[in-house]
Design brief:
This protein is α+β, with helices and mostly antiparallel strands and 552 residues long. The protein has 17 helices and 15 strands.
């Protein structure tokens, strides 16, 4: 009866597969004569068996790779037959790494990334549609600030002693020649340019900060290499941490009710020295009657997720000229054409904050005013792979492998790739970045100079290893080793061509006259010491490898 009723109602419109499935569910009998309940029970048992087999991973993929690599090294490499004196004699700086910062919060990540809803101005607003920005004196300013720009706040100067001490430290940094123009690459090599402002980075020992393709080596504000001026900047940093914590306590955001806050344990500050710009310098003013953009629209990068940013700034007169036009910043919501931007003048000695998720959802711009401006932007920079302690351990790993690596016939693909990857990283991310910034920069970096020399020694030995491995592969072509060596060497060739193009483009540009003695040596770095090398031009080496592998 059930089957007949079902067929009469559904046979004309239902598909065969759906028909048999529904028949089984209604009658308890499937097309094979087996009870559908029994089929469900059997499927349930299978799913239980499968679930039992799935075990939660006890270690990450990187940890597994490292463990297996160490096991492979111990099993395959022969005992030590000879030593590499240059590697054994390296006196590594064994200072402990900076205190680990709390890991970024992981709960409710989807809610954290929800962008603020657009704030559409009412029709009776006096703001013209083509302007789309608000000043603090505008009627709608406070409503838009509280609605869409939560996390942005400004604290005015109160004339405290720490403000005068910080302003004095900025002047000392300038007189010591610490500030310099950076050569950065916002997008393509053709757009490579010098910054409109001079900068320096000061922070925890061994930190670097990378932005727009440039790795900036931080001057330490503590330890034996820190000057009194650097220590004064650290005291300013402590003050910024305290002020940010107070702002976070007063900050309300529905996205942080059930999750942890981002960090404000600032581990470095990027300090800018800015002169007023006149046309055609800088970018076009983003707002009517505002100054030209010294730093165009951007978000701060290379920071710990959802960390806060604090910016303290002072303005000094130039040739006793009055300060009639204040420096200012602009704020806008990313990918939002309805919400107006904010134009916020900043009196000298004021501090502004971008708290928690604000930097992820908004951009800001710095607009020129009267006088010489110093701004100290305190940040929570990422630690890996941007510290000396990280690259030191990587270099040690390569040195230990090279010391025991005698018979190339026993080298595995994993060991070869690891050595070549380290060789690539030291050259591209550290040595070339260092020499790119010029001799004046190197002479002032007492903390970093001996460490770069240690990396140079490891690189020299890795270069010798690459040369000998190339010669060995020519005589003993191995399919697996040859593929890996050709792949990484081709990447090195591409990387070196990029640095050459950057050097040529810079030498042909107008920015050399601006950087005044801070011009980079070149995209290349001097090869020091007597050792065998593949040479700077890897074209012939790559051709030989392609010929051996039959890919020419």
């Amino acid at each position: 009866l059930i089957i007949n009723n079902f067929l009469n109602r559904n046979l004309k419109t239902i598909e065969p597969q759906t028909l048999f499935r529904n028949l089984s569910n209604r009658s308890g009998i499937n097309v094979c004569g087996m009870s559908s309940n029994w089929s469900k029970l059997k499927a349930k048992k299978k799913s239980k068996k499968r679930s039992k087999k799935r075990k939660a991973p006890t270690e990450s993929i990187k940890q597994t790779k490292r463990r297996k690599t160490k096991q492979t090294i111990n099993q395959t490499l022969k005992p030590l037959l000879s030593t590499v004196d240059s590697l054994r004699n390296i006196k590594w700086d064994n200072t402990s790494p900076p205190n680990a910062l709390p890991s970024p919060p992981t709960r409710n990540m989807k809610r954290r990334n929800v962008r603020p809803k657009p704030h559409v101005l009412p029709r009776h607003s006096g703001l013209q549609r083509n302007e789309r920005y608000l000043n603090p004196e505008d009627e709608e300013y406070q409503a838009v600030l509280e609605d869409v720009y939560q996390g942005f706040s400004v604290v005015s100067s109160d004339g405290s002693d720490w403000e005068y001490e910080a302003a004095g430290a900025f002047k000392d940094l300038s007189s010591d020649g610490i500030f310099k123009y950076d050569i950065v690459q916002p997008s393509t090599i053709e757009n490579q340019t010098a910054t409109y402002v001079k900068r320096c980075v000061i922070g925890d020992e061994g930190l670097t900060y990378k932005y727009l393709g440039l790795r900036v080596f931080a001057y330490p504000w503590d330890g034996s290499h820190a000057t009194e001026t650097m220590r004064a900047i650290k005291m300013l940093n402590v003050k910024m941490i305290s002020m940010t914590q107070d702002e976070l306590d007063n900050y309300y955001d529905e996205n942080i009710q059930d999750r942890d806050r981002g960090s404000c344990n600032y581990n470095l500050t990027l300090i800018n020295e800015m002169l007023p710009l006149v046309e055609p310098e800088g970018k076009e003013p983003p707002f009517p009657n505002s100054g030209r953009a010294v730093v165009s629209w951007h978000q701060d990068t290379s920071l710990q997720d959802y960390s806060s940013v604090a910016v303290f700034h002072t303005v000094n007169t130039i040739d006793d000229k009055p300060l009639t036009k204040p420096w200012s910043v602009g704020m806008r919501v990313i990918y939002d054409k309805k919400t107006p931007a904010l134009h916020v003048p900043l009196p000298s000695g004021s501090t502004y904050f971008m708290l928690d998720t604000f930097n992820h959802q908004h951009q800001h711009v710095v607009l020129t005013g009267d006088g010489l401006r110093y701004s100290s932007t305190h940040r929570v920079a990422v630690l890996i792979p941007s510290t000396w302690h990280y690259i030191r351990e990587v270099a040690k790993e390569a040195a230990n492998i090279l010391i025991t690596c005698v018979d190339y016939s026993n080298i595995t693909v994993k060991i070869l790739r690891r050595l070549l990857d380290i060789h690539f990283e030291i050259e591209d991310e550290w040595l070339r970045q260092w020499y790119w910034q010029g001799n004046n920069h190197a002479t002032r970096q007492d903390y970093w100079r001996p460490k770069i020399e240690q990396l140079q020694i490891v690189w020299n030995n890795l270069e010798t290893f690459s040369y000998e491995m190339h010669q060995w592969l020519l005589a003993n072509p191995s399919s697996e080793l040859l593929v890996v060596f050709k792949e990484v060497t081709s990447l090195r060739l591409d990387m070196r061509n990029v640095w050459k193009q950057k050097s040529v483009q810079l030498n042909n540009s107008q920015h050399l006259s601006k950087i005044q003695g801070e011009e980079p040596v070149s995209g290349l770095f001097p090869i020091k010491g007597d050792f065998e090398s593949l040479g700077e031009d890897l074209n012939q080496v790559v051709k030989n490898l392609k010929r051996l592998s039959g890919t020419v």
